[in-house]
């Protein structure tokens, strides 16, 4: 079965041409919905590594009953976003690096991460990681309104947004891309950005729609919906009266 990987910017361009620790497949034409054999068992491997080294990815402030929030370390925002949207520490730098090697086994310089070894993982790593959990990532077409989403079918959101670069306390006139997670916990939606000191409560669905709309109003911002595989396949993440639009 054909299994296609691509960078986020290339995917967005292609899609537009067609119609875009506190606890996936993108819909690309020709992609199989079956998890490749090379990624089977990845989640169990990640769980084993998590048990062996809980402190290896980032810090998390969590007591029982609280919201899981993994904080930023190096350029590991993709890993933090994955763990935060899953509400548990599933993936580590080691598992993400392993995904990179499986995606590009013949490359001397791996195109899916920073050459410095500090992270900066691309969308392909997030796709493969979610696949290993039997989840799917649906790219959100920003021409739709957020209100057309069926929120009850969406497990969480992973956004790719511009972010300022800082050197210590000094903010540099540079902007990079940053992954962050949003999801519902105990009836409330939370901004679980790993750069925050703690989770920020957004509120209910109305407040979530406002928050997501504001984030996506940035020209280069993009969003992935994290859903169950069957939800991605039947399209039920979109309200029924919007299916034909």
UniProtKB/TrEMBL annotation:
<dbReference type="GO" id="GO:0005829">
    <property type="term" value="C:cytosol"/>
</dbReference>
<keyword id="KW-0645">Protease</keyword>
<keyword id="KW-0378">Hydrolase</keyword>
<dbReference type="GO" id="GO:0006508">
    <property type="term" value="P:proteolysis"/>
</dbReference>
<feature type="active site">
    <location>
        <position position="77"/>
    </location>
</feature>
<feature type="domain" description="Josephin">
    <location>
        <begin position="64"/>
        <end position="241"/>
    </location>
</feature>
<dbReference type="InterPro" id="IPR040053">
    <property type="entry name" value="JOSD1/2"/>
</dbReference>
<dbReference type="GO" id="GO:0016579">
    <property type="term" value="P:protein deubiquitination"/>
</dbReference>
<dbReference type="InterPro" id="IPR006155">
    <property type="entry name" value="Josephin"/>
</dbReference>
<comment type="function">
    <text>Cleaves 'Lys-63'-linked poly-ubiquitin chains, and with lesser efficiency 'Lys-48'-linked poly-ubiquitin chains (in vitro). May act as a deubiquitinating enzyme.</text>
</comment>
<protein>
    <recommendedName>
        <fullName>Josephin-2</fullName>
        <ecNumber>3.4.19.12</ecNumber>
    </recommendedName>
</protein>
<feature type="active site">
    <location>
        <position position="178"/>
    </location>
</feature>
<keyword id="KW-0833">Ubl conjugation pathway</keyword>
<dbReference type="GO" id="GO:0004843">
    <property type="term" value="F:cysteine-type deubiquitinase activity"/>
</dbReference>
<feature type="active site">
    <location>
        <position position="193"/>
    </location>
</feature>
<keyword id="KW-0963">Cytoplasm</keyword>
<dbReference type="Pfam" id="PF02099">
    <property type="entry name" value="Josephin"/>
</dbReference>
């Amino acid at each position: 079965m054909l299994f296609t990987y691509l960078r986020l910017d290339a995917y967005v361009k292609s899609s537009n041409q067609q119609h875009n620790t506190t606890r996936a497949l993108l819909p690309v034409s020709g992609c199989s919905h079956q998890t490749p054999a090379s990624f089977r068992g990845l989640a169990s491997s990640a769980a084993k590594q998590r048990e062996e080294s809980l402190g290896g990815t980032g810090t998390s402030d969590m007591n029982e009953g609280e919201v899981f929030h993994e904080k930023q370390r190096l350029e590991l925002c993709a890993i933090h976003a994955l763990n935060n949207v899953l509400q548990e520490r599933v993936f580590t730098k080691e598992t993400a690096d392993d995904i990179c090697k499986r995606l590009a086994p013949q490359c001397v310089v791996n195109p899916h991460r920073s050459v410095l070894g500090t992270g900066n993982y691309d969308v392909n790593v997030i796709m493969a990681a979610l696949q290993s959990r039997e989840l799917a990532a649906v790219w959100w077409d920003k021409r739709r309104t957020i209100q057309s989403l069926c929120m009850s079918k969406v497990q969480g959101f992973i956004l790719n947004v511009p972010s300022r670069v800082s050197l210590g306390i000094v903010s540099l006139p540079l902007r990079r891309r940053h992954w962050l997670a949003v999801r519902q916990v105990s009836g409330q939606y939370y901004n679980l950005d790993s750069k925050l000191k703690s989770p920020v409560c957004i509120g209910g669905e109305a407040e979530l729609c406002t928050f997501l709309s504001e984030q996506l109003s940035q020209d280069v911002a993009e969003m992935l919906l994290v859903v169950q595989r069957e939800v991605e396949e039947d399209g039920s993440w979109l309200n029924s009266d919007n299916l034909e639009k």
